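Hey, I'm writing a tutorial for new members on how sequence and structure tokens pair up, and I'd like a real worked example in the thread rather than a made-up one. If someone can provide the structure for the chain below, I'll link this post from the tutorial.
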Amino acid sequence: MGGAGGVQLRGGRGKPGSGRGGAGVSLCCGAGMAGASTHGPSASRASMISMATSFPKFSMFNGLQAMVGLAARLILGKAGGQHKGKKRLAGTDQGSIETRYSWLVATTAVIMLSLAAGGPITVVVGLVQIAEDFGSGRSLPSLANSLAYFGTAIGGMVCGVMVARFGQRLVAMIGGFAVALGLMLASFGESWSLLVGFGLGVGLFGNGALFPPMLAYVSLWFDRRRGTALALVASGQYVAGFLWPPIFERAIAAFGWQRTMFGYGLLVAAIAVPLAALVLRPPPAQPTTGNFAEKMQPGARVLGMKGNLAFFLLAFCSFLCCIPMAMPAAHLVAFCGDLGISASRGALMLSVLTFAAFMARQFWGWLSDKIGGLWTVVFGSLAQILGMLGFLATQDEAGLFFIAAAYGLGFSGIIPAYVLTLRALFPAAEAHWRVPTLLFLSLSGMAAGAWLAGYIYDWLGFYAAAWWAGIGFNLVQFALILFLLLRWRRGMAEG
């Protein structure tokens, strides 16, 4: 691969019994090892790029042992905290930036995102009732859901710039207020208020100020377990997915979708805004010595091509894979209703899907710290394709519960892996715009997928065609990711 000094892209491997992946593994997630420092800055760069794309061998026993050890340290309050920021990074002369407060920030982010992400779920659970009240088919509430995603995507880029100027605390407080006001406006019961409330309130100024900037913000608090932390924070959406659907289903049945939206808006304002004010503070200074991404020169090549071209291809891949990702989640309750399955069982099925995604995302985060972001995207994309095929293979309730869980297990690690790859390949100073821009395309794909499935249903009267369309987009994305890996391997061979 092209780069300064014609560096050879070779990442070292750890000892078989160490439970570590070696220098190439540790530098991707920022968890440096002593061995990396013996090879100099050139090898540090090689290790960084290699980690983003290579797939080291590791023992399943050592992997399980590492997971149990991390869980124990988290429970005992020792993860990051007992080190007091003194553990040194491989190839650097600076201490780790991870502390107990890093995990407090990550936990706060999960809570806030689980509240904000509950906004669009009110439309998912109440889709049939909303469509009946407006008499406009399922495309109108599907459009409201899509506008929330699209607004989040646009808002993420705008608010990312605002964070760089005003800080995450103020922007997150604005986001909490906006989600609340958007839900209240949508509850007025007019088509325009539904679309404006979700597009501008829940989406643009609400989740747009929370989800994309929050991922970039939390990544600045971690260097050794960045993949795990990103997976945890991104799981806020899945916490919302398994927590809120049964509650919303009962609330809508008892009070109607309008009162449910209004009441939930009050809840978001009461919890999210004070949390942002109390916990969020400027992140610590980033370590730079020996860190390839921090020492990149303008015009440096990434993955064997120009840096911005590599960035665009990664972001475009995230757009393509998010189109099918949104389809089952946005239409599962309605899909169950078409098959004669009650709304309560459909909401429970959605909770199963998102709970499985939440649990699996922690595994994907741990795995991405071991094998790197790009390989995690490859495996997650393949699992998502298989999950989409599963929705075509069965239509009975028991089978759909199984497929929903399997689908959640498969796709949940993809988006954090994209973010991890960006943070490994580009400087931290660029995170405030690169991460939201990538998530802009990701969320635009989610918006397109949620709307497209509803449009295809209104056109043909069934969801199978929508599932097939999603699989097609996923296959194109899978081919592009493999192309990027091929480019990397060719560059390594030539280097």
